[in-house]
């Protein structure tokens, strides 16, 4: 339990709760859920430019990272098709991969196929079911994909001014504007209570909020004087109590709760809002193909990690289909902006290709 570890090393409740956010981020779990300590480790075990445990903003927004990868691939001769949905994986008579079929009927032939989609989409939607072992299909169906995350993107006409650290008269970003700001983290019990509400099917009345202002470091993301604010919030259940839909009313009601919380820390925030985009778990699934809205393609609990990710005996990136590989967050070592699963899968695929 992360709660026990934090109690052993720290006295300050706000510090413990702030550290605990990385132990529950993207997870339908509380700091008192067994295995939550690993999720914290997962988020601090890496490094950025030699600084261990550090995170950073991508200049130009997260899409710039995808563009950088695309440019590197194109420079090595890769052909990139965008806005071309895959219909299914193409198999030969011998059961080996022969490529993929696009929704417009185009066949893209290849001896190897690496899927960055979730295990659920890759194996339950794109792969002919009769070609997969029944026990493997059942294991993929049973992966826990519950998600507590609602992402809210906000445009504001001025920087938030927090009671704890008011803005200067010139309105320039201060050091805390250039960091991750954690709200409703005065104590780990608040995170636990927010989790309990979501397990009952209700969006948290005092949600955990991670607030980032990337335009404070990258002014090109917004017009002069304005800013973009990224709100990573939880807990919100994928399915609301009583089977109620996440309709526009439910979305706005939850967003209003989040904004009310921010207003208590930074009076005037609500008045500064120009626009907002609310992405609940069903929205994240529909738009980005995240099963259940889970940002990691599946829970990062200990029973779904290492040799069991995505399923026991299939943690080595190969699948039951010869030539089909899994290279996304649903593979070992799991989610996060690090590319480890893709790099490892590429090595495995190259090794098999040389044998071919």
TrEMBL record:
Q: Name one GO molecular function term.
A: oxidoreductase activity
Taking the first listed entry, what is the main subcellular location of this protein, grouped into a coarse class? mitochondrion
Q: Where in the cell is it found?
A: Mitochondrion matrix
User: A cellular component term (GO) from this record?
Assistant: mitochondrial matrix
| Highest rank taxon of the organism | Eukaryota
Question: What InterPro entries does UniProt report for this protein, alphabetically?
Answer: Amino_oxidase, FAD/NAD-bd_sf
Span of domain Amine oxidase: 28-170
Keywords assigned:
FAD, Flavoprotein
For this chain, the family text in UniProt reads: Belongs to the carotenoid/retinoid oxidoreductase family.
User: What is the recorded function of this protein according to its Swiss-Prot or TrEMBL entry?
Assistant: Probable oxidoreductase that may play a role as regulator of mitochondrial function.
Summarize the subunit comment.
Interacts with COX5B; this interaction may contribute to localize PYROXD2 to the inner face of the inner mitochondrial membrane.
What's the protein name? Pyridine nucleotide-disulfide oxidoreductase domain-containing protein 2
Protein's organism: Aegotheles bennettii
Lineage per the UniProt record: Eukaryota, Metazoa, Chordata, Craniata, Vertebrata
């Amino acid at each position: 339990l992360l709660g026990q570890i934090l109690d052993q090393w720290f006295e300050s409740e706000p510090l413990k709760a702030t550290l605990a956010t990385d132990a529950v981020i993207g997870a339908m779990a509380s700091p008192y859920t067994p295995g939550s300590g690993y999720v914290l480790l997962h988020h601090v075990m890496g490094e950025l430019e030699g600084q261990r445990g550090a995170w950073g903003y991508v200049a130009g927004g997260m899409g710039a990272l995808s563009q950088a990868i695309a440019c590197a691939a194109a420079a090595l001769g890769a052909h990139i098709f965008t806005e071309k949905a895959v219909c299914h994986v193409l198999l030969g008579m011998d059961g080996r991969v022969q490529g993929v079929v696009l929704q417009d009927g185009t066949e893209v032939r290849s001896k190897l196929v690496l899927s960055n989609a979730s295990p659920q989409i890759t194996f339950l939607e794109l792969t002919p079911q009769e070609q997969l072992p029944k026990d493997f299909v059942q294991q993929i169906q049973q992966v826990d994909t519950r998600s507590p995350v609602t992402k809210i993107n906000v445009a504001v006409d001025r920087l938030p001014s927090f009671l704890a650290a008011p803005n200067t008269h010139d309105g320039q970003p201060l050091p805390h504007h250039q960091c991750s700001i954690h709200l409703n983290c005065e104590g780990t019990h608040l995170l636990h209570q927010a989790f309990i509400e979501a397990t009952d099917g209700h969006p948290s009345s005092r949600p955990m909020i991670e607030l980032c202002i990337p335009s404070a470091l990258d002014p090109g993301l917004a017009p002069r004087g304005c800013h973009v604010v990224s709100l990573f919030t939880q807990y919100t259940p994928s399915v609301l109590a009583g089977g109620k839909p996440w309709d526009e009313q439910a979305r706005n009601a939850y967003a209003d709760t989040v904004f009310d919380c921010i207003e208590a820390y930074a009076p005037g925030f609500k008045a500064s809002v120009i626009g907002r985009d609310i992405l609940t778990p069903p929205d994240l699934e529909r738009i980005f193909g995240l099963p259940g809205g889970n940002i990691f393609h599946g829970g990062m609990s200990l029973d779904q990690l290492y040799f069991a990710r995505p399923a026991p005996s299939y943690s080595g990136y190969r699948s039951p289909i010869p030539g089909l590989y899994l290279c996304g967050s649903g593979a070992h070592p799991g989610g996060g902006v690090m590319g480890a699963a893709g790099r490892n899968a590429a090595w495995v695929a190259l090794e098999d290709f040389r044998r071919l």
